[in-house]
Write a structure and sequence with these properties.
Elements (H helix, E strand, L loop, with lengths): L13 E7 L3 E7 L3 H13 L3 E12 L5 H9 L27 E9 L5 E5 L4 E2 L17 E6 L3 E11 L10 E8 L16 H4 L26 E8 L5 H24 L10 E2 L2 E2 L2
Antiparallel strand pairs: 1-2, 2-10, 3-8, 4-6, 4-8, 5-7, 9-10, 11-12
Length: 283
């Protein structure tokens, strides 16, 4: 299936990047519909695969944190996931529990032997795969604080990181936030503002308002007008670069439509009871 469009096709969506840095991408998507733009937003948040700790085995834990609390903290530690596409989902792997094809192992064994407080950081997790390690902002960064220990306390754990998406659990989301806005002047009247004295004073315009013109309030209202320009601000947690998140999200959307097209073109290959519940056909 070739879904490419000519370069000079005026109906094709347009992307203009306004700002790009390590963990942030600000861009404008135009010449498309609200449903497409919102689909991109939802997929970036919930369906871009990353790696995250999913299993924790405790051999020794005499810290002040319970096993469940510590396991939850470990699951939320962001991991570098540039190679996540190379891993299989657990459901697709033929192994009994976990293997190098579908998971990465982490170990941590720390014991406080000195007086005072011993702080354990995510950078101390030892990975079995050099490409999947905890996210660090710089060479001096030690990562996320996992737990604080006192003399005599010990922590010995074995962790398994697996591939997943955020619609299964938020720990797999590559984004901390995705800003999304259209029609900053509310020309389409999709928003109904509550105010006491003045809408303009109590609801200041965003920076995106400089990109568009405000309609004449005395002009006739166009009930058929639809938004065509959308403003995105993608903020990531470091597991993936922001532009990588956008590209992966667009690929996921394409694959969904590709699967739908194949199913429509080859209905005989679909499951015979796909349109039935408990043997009864849908009406």
């Amino acid at each position: 299936m070739n879904g490419s469009l000519p370069v000079n096709d005026q109906s094709a969506p347009r992307v203009r990047i306004r700002n790009l840095d390590k963990n942030n991408l600000d861009f404008v998507l135009s010449n498309t519909s609200l449903s497409v733009a919102n689909s991109l937003r939802r997929v970036m948040i919930a369906e871009v695969p990353t790696m995250a700790i999913d299993l924790v085995e405790f051999y020794e834990n005499t810290t002040v944190l319970a096993d469940e609390y510590l396991a939850h903290r470990l699951g939320l530690v962001p991991l570098i996931s540039h190679t996540a596409e190379k891993f299989k989902y657990t459901r697709d792997c033929v192994c009994a529990e976990y293997c190098k094809e579908c998971s990465v192992e982490f170990t941590l064994h720390v014991k406080c032997t000195e007086p005072g407080t011993r702080v354990v950081y995510s950078s101390e997790l030892i990975s079995s795969n050099k490409n999947v390690v905890p996210v660090l902002e710089s060479e001096d960064d030690r990562g996320v604080i996992l737990v604080k220990m006192r003399k005599g306390q010990e922590l010995n754990i074995h962790c398994i990181a697996k591939k997943g998406v955020a619609k299964e659990h938020a720990k797999w989301s590559p984004c901390s936030a995705v800003g999304f806005e259209y029609d900053p002047h509310n020309n389409l009247r999709h928003s109904d503002y509550w105010f006491e004295k003045s809408v303009k004073d109590e609801w200041p315009l965003s920076a995106n308002a400089a990109e568009e013109l405000e309609n004449d309030p005395n002009a006739p209202f166009d009930f058929k007008a639809e938004p065509t320009t959308f403003y995105f601000n993608v903020e990531t947690i470091g597991s993936l670069e922001p532009q990588e998140v956008v590209k992966t999200a667009t690929r996921v959307i394409q694959e969904k439509f590709g699967d739908l097209q194949v199913a429509l073109e080859n209905p005989q290959d679909s499951e015979p009871n796909a349109n039935m519940d408990d043997g009864e056909p849908w009406v």
